[in-house]
Write a structure and sequence with these properties.
Family: Belongs to the NmrA-type oxidoreductase family.
Radius of gyration: 20 Å
Organism: Aspergillus steynii IBT 23096
Number of domains: 1
Structural class: alpha/beta
Number of helices: 15
Distance between the termini: 39 Å
Strand order of the largest sheet: 3-2-1-4-5-6-11
CATH architecture: 3-Layer(aba) Sandwich
Number of strands: 13
Strand content: 15-25%
Largest sheet: 7 strands, parallel
Protein name: NmrA family transcriptional regulator
CATH superfamily: NAD(P)-binding Rossmann-like Domain
GO cellular component, one term: nucleus
Keywords: NADP
CATH class: Alpha Beta
CATH topology: Rossmann fold
Length: about 350
Amino acid sequence: MKKTIVVFGATGNQGGSVIDHILSDIDLSSRYRVRAVTRNPDSQAAMNLKNRSVEIAMGDMDRPDTVERVLVDASIVFILTTFQTTKAHEIAQGKSVADAAVANNLEYIIYSTLPSVTDISGGKYLAVEYYDSKAETEKYIRTLPVKAAFFAPGCYMQNFQNEMKPQALGDGTYGLVYPVSPQTQLPLIDIAESGKFVGAILADPDRFRGQVLSASTEVVSFEEVAQILSKSSGKTIRFEQTTEKSFRDSLPADLADTLLETMKYFEDYGYYGPNTEGKVKETAQIAQGELTTLQRYLEREPLELKLCYLCHYTYLFFYIILTAYKQQAHQNKDSIIRNL
């Protein structure tokens, strides 16, 4: 008899990838039926899922009654929360779904998490709340009487097509301009491959109980990113390190600390903390199917550059705030922050 997996964020990047992977995998599709949670069951994205024999359920994390309802008779839940207004609000969302999972006697929770910047930095960086909110929710889930595993995606390759696209420098070349060293490393993931990692958990839940999957394809420095983008596009693209003051002065005062600390945390401690590269290599080995490198991603999705002289930091602002926790907000009314 098939078990029901409830997927939050079903019409977004992560949830949609999880559903696609389950439906396309012979083993997983024989073991699981999918219940897709969306705030708008009448959206085209929801209708597309329904046409693929996916059960559609209306659910809103801010409405506990709907959360309880979508988890009835389910066995597993994939929880994706989003930073909408405050750290406390996102944590409350995650707790609401996790508590409902326990109340409905679900067997397993898979939570989309992020590293604790406060803990890893030993309290040096306290302003990166949109990471810490997920880490705090993960800690809470670990206290509950339910099995759980945690999916921690890296930086989205898709961001280089939009918010992190290299900007014209005025001399016919383009640049990635940040207040960190060129050797600062980023773990990269084609977010459309989220399902390959979550699928590994679903294939053997007991194996991954309590584990965090540092879900990325590769770890690449900013300097290497610039080289890959340059080779792919045929344009001269280079990394340029700016000063912290210049970076801070270019941002709204209420966001400067958060965005600067995000960058400096990457430089000082690594995205996943100590041994980030080792964690990524280990996790990549368990993914179901071949993973896409940045070079191959750009072959599939070529980078298009225009001589636009908009301020780079405007793009950085939208990169971190609008896509750091990117989950297609216009489709499912999720919030504005997702994974950097």
